[in-house]
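Quick question, first post here. What does this chain look like in 3D?
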Amino acid sequence: MNTEQQIDAFRESYDVLRDEIAKVIVGHTSIVEGTLIALLSGGHILLEGVPGLGKTLLVRTLSRVLDLSFNRVQFTPDLMPADILGTNIVMETPGGRREFQFQKGPIFAHLILADEINRATPKTQSAMLEAMQEKSVTAGGEIRRLAEPFFVLATQNPIDQEGTYPLPEAQLDRFFFKLLVQYPSAPELAEVLRRTTEGHHAELRTVMTRDRMLELQKLVPQVPAASHVKDYAVRLIMATHPKTETALPVSNQYLRFGSSPRGGQALLLAAKVRALIQGRFNVGFEDLQAVAHPALRHRLILNFEAEAEGITTDHIIDQLLSEVPKTAAVTA
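> Answer (accepted):
Ran it through. Tokens below.
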């Protein structure tokens, strides 16, 4: 298969997946696109939005259109690491002897919905996030590999913070994208009400196998990015580091810490996926700009002044995209 055929096949697979999801999910075009870009990049996703906007429904729909095993974990304050990872239990053998056998937890699936992840204690959160980073778990004295591909889609509610445990910044950094789920528009709400109050039932098909997903993921790193495009990604990340020579004034004023190298990795990989679904086999500046907000918004740490003035990380990313030049200045 030549390059043009690979691009066409990638784009066709993406379009079929997106259209199948649209049978259930009304609107949320950017959220669905961001979710699919992250999955095709092999990354985990944090979905944030108030209750009732379809975050859980989106993940459930994904599990139905992808030929992948799926488990849902409802995070609560009393959830323990063993409830996610699994534990050793005593089993009696046919010969009457007793021995320990490992009982796998729900983490042993391809697609994990971590519902309201900020309601679990830090100990349980860290067990989940360790599995996300290492793609393996240590339990019963053994390291056990997780299924490939392995995705975590976590949801959290930005309101009703009583009894919650906000994710530490170092753990937030493990998410490839953070997507903000907004309220639907009036026409979208009307369609939601029609579908949910008039007995509408969408017939979903499984449109992508595990092997096909792995094939698409392997194609992404092969997409070339010119040196000046990669340099632009580097300068975007460096501009977020306060109190450095490369920092923008807005970063010095409102940030305590800037993006980690993972932010740069997310920028480039997501831009490569976007280029493919746009029908191109090379990354452009517009691809980096299109994915900058979901890739960086959870990796910028605001200072007290920003919080006092109501400045968000999205505001700072807007400034970055408008002020960081696409080409580096040439010095004599």
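DSSP finds 14 helices and 13 strands in the chain.
The chain has two domains: 3-80+107-216, 223-323.
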